[in-house]
Amino acid sequence: MDTTAAALRTSLAERLAELRGVPVDQLPATLLDVVVRPVDLPGGRVYIVRPRNWDLLRDDEGAAARPVPYWARLWPSGERLAIAVAESPPGPGTRVLELGCGLGLPSIVAARGGADVLATDSNTDAVAFAAHGLALNELEATVARADWTSDGDALVERGPFDLVLAADVLYTTANADAAVRLLPRLVEPNGQVWLADPDRAGGRRFLAGARKSFYVQTREHDEVRLHTLRPR
Q1: Which of 50, 56, 76, 229 has the maximum number of C-beta atoms within 10 A of its C-beta?
Q2: pTM confidence score
Q3: Structural domain containing residue 143
């Protein structure tokens, strides 16, 4: 491991331990065994940092009775959303919020264009990895722990936003219903919501409710649907 990678791992371990409230030596080794992955997108290459072996990390977290680390993989919806942001980058000063950012790829791409980005996730490990991904790309953004299904009022106070991003967050009925209620409160009257979803039942439920507040345009990309929502 070269000097840069070693420094990244040390910094990441310290932040993960701080956010979990445990000593570094109590963190699972599979969480600290990380790789830097290049992602080629329109406008150029960016990098994300992620755990090397998701399956082993999932097993370790399960043995410790912690939630499945869904945040720790780059899922197709997240990659598709990042491509969309790269193809139509928000300009400098555009206020961007990402919900459930995971590794933070869409936020990284938005920040690359000069947007004022707030990346959020309910999982503190995701917050640490997303922040380090932004730093790895020498980009500035705010990364915060926020569960949008329960911390909606706090997010509304930090808005409204010109662009709200979310990838594969509608995996439960409760999430779909919460999004219907929250998203109209987060976005500017002339703003947009970009939501990538692998055609989950929750996604369809959300769209049925969201059409009361938004005009919806959908584009299909293989197994991912990218929905653009504009306030009515």
Answers
A1: 229
A2: 0.95
A3: 75-231
Domain end call among 52, 71, 90? 71
pLDDT along the chain (232 residues), means of 10: 72 95 95 95 96 97 96 97 97 97 98 97 97 96 95 96 98 96 98 97 96 97 96 97
Q: Say if residue 54 is in the same domain as residue 113.
A: no
CA dihedral (186, 192, 194, 200) positive or negative: positive
CATH number assigned to the domain comprising residue 211: 3.40.50.150
Alpha-carbon distance of 157 to 143, in angstroms, equals 16
Indicate the number of domains in the chain: 2
Instruction: Kindly tell me the burial class for residue 199, based on how many C-beta atoms sit within 10 Å of its own C-beta (0-12, 13-18, 19 or more).
Output: exposed
Do the Cβ atoms of 5 and 36 come closer than 8 Å?
A: yes
Can you tell me whether residue 146 is helix, strand or coil?
A: coil
Question: What is the pLDDT at residue 195?
Answer: 98
Biggest CA pair distance of the chain: 53
Q: Which residue has the tokens 């720790």?
A: 72
The alpha helices in the chain, defined as continuous H runs, are: 3-20, 29-32, 54-63, 76-87, 105-112, 124-136, 152-158, 173-186, 201-210
Are residues 21 and 99 located together in one domain of the fold? no
Q: What is the pLDDT of residue 1?
A: 45
pLDDT value for 4: 67
* Chain position carrying tokens 């780059």: 74
pLDDT of residue 176: 97
- Output the CA angle 108-58-61, nearest 5 degrees: 105
